[in-house]
Amino acid sequence: MLILPLHRPITRASFPVVTALLIIVNVLVFFGWQAGDEAAVDRARTHYVDSGLARFELPAYERHLLATNQIDALDELRQLPAGARADYISQVTLTDVAYLDALHAGALFDGAAALEAWRPLRAAYDAELENVFTLRHMLRSSEVDPWRMLAAAFLHGGVMHLVGNMVFLLALGVLVEGALGPWRHLGLYLLGAVGSSAVSLLWRWGEAGGGLGASGAVAALMGAFCVVWGRQPVRFFYWFGVVFDYVRAPAILLLPAWLGWEAWNLMSNADSNVGFDAHIGGLVSGALLGGLLVGLGQVRESFIADDGGRQVDDRWERAQACLGRLQLAEADALLSELADEQPQRFDIRLMRYRVARNAGRHATIAERARELLQADAPDSDGIHAQQGALADLDGTDDALPLTERLGLARRWLAAGALDAVEAALAPLTGEAEGEEADALVAQLWFQLALAHRECHQDDAHARTLRRLAERYPAQPQAAKARFLLGELEGAGAATAPAG
User: Which of 45, 161, 162, 219 would you label with 151, given CA atoms 20 to 30 Å apart?
Assistant: First the structure.
């Protein structure tokens, strides 16, 4: 699921300076200080394996897993080939705070001699790890470190991780920084980062892992946005599976949507390597901070109320009002503009047709009726309106051509509007359409009869079969219709009461 507020364009007057600086800092950290970390980690792992540290730390790590009752992790370790265990330990223990503390305290070694032999080897390895910028600043589960709780919000695990967070930061920063001002916005971002880290630590305490990324701080902006903008309708883009659109809704409604989505993922996708717990912490922290700022009156209400200098498009509402007052020329002009911009809208075509009928302009009525009949009706009311338009054309020089009439009947049949299909086929007598056309019409009559039967509309089923047999007696469908009628008559005779 993706929900992204896109309510306000970036202008010179509303340019989010702090948001832009935060994006620059995140980008510089990733492409600058973090740039060599992958190679540095590889060098450290190679050093670990080559130095022989695993000779001391493999039994130490096994003791630690036993002491902390991590039986599954111990079994996983012992199932690895002997040659792969050193590299495995070098990876899984990078952020295992409890193991590292016990290791450096000397509690996991069997004797002082092993401890003394291990220390210089470990010191050289730790010096290698000190070259990894990310490891020095990322959040580590089971460790309360205020600097890491903040610094982790400026680290990222990959280019797409960075890009995704920066897109959300920009979209939300425009709205939150404008509503709060640059300094309160910066404070919210930093406090939200710490709040998201705190919730993540609380949720993951006792685990051997870590976290990084701006998503917790960005989530804090989400939570604050929902509360600060409150009931103000905002425009946002949503994408769920294959469904996506732009809609307007009160900002506060996004808070339960975002929270619910993160909570569901936290419970059902725990192994996805995504910090849903940090996202929830950020959302809640941001909502609380946003509520505090609203309560203290630290919100720019004028920015929220201002619609960015854009005019609301009210032409549809004005056209409806003009039609209600019978100001037909004004209504028609407004609807013509809308039809040029949004040619697929059924409601615009329908209103243009009604304006033409009210004006009594016969040539325009025919043109608008044809336009209406070419559109897909969204519901039964739309199909009923199309029936009226078809009736207006029948019996005039502008009658709908047979191919268009049959196409319309097929769309109605697919929509289940069986009475409308019968009304569309009723004027066709089988006398002047031609042999090829007769075959197409007969097939539609037969499909309509079967549809009536599926709906248990026995009278309508029999009626359409009789019309088919009478009007198109030479068609193969007529023979099937006569057979089915015979079955119906036989069934009726069998069930008739005796005497």
Answer: 45
55: Cβ contacts below 8 Å, ≥ 6 apart = none
Quote the tokens at residue 207: 């685990």
Q: How far is CA 344 from the centre of its chain?
A: 24
The model's pTM:
0.61
Q: What is the mean pLDDT of residues 136-155?
A: 93
Give pLDDT, residue 499: 44
User: CATH class for domain 404-491?
Assistant: mainly alpha
What phi, psi does 130 have (nearest 5°)?
-65, -20
Report H helices in 375-427: 380-393, 402-414, 418-425
Domain ranges of the chain: 2-32+155-305, 35-142, 404-491
More confident residue, 364 or 278: 278
- Give residue for tokens 């200098």: 309
**pLDDT value at residue 44:** 92
Q: Provide the percentage of residues in the chain whose pLDDT is more than 90.
A: 37
* Residue-level pLDDT at 492: 59
Structure tokens at 457: 């509309």
Both structure tokens of 364: 């325009």
Q: Do the beta carbons of residue 349 and residue 372 sit within 8 Å?
A: yes
- 206/141 Cα distance (integer angstroms): 7
CA distance 36 to 43: 11
Residue 11 has pLDDT above 80, yes or no: no
Taking alpha carbons only, the member of 271, 286, 270, 145 closest to residue 215 is 286
Backbone angles phi and psi of 305, in degrees to 5: -70, -30
Which amino acid is located at 309 in the chain?
Answer: G
Given CA atoms 68, 72, 75, 76 in this order, what sign does their dihedral have? negative
Alpha helices in 297-345 (DSSP H): 301-305, 315-324, 328-341
CA distances from 154 to 23, 147, 166, 376, 393 (A): 9, 12, 11, 51, 67
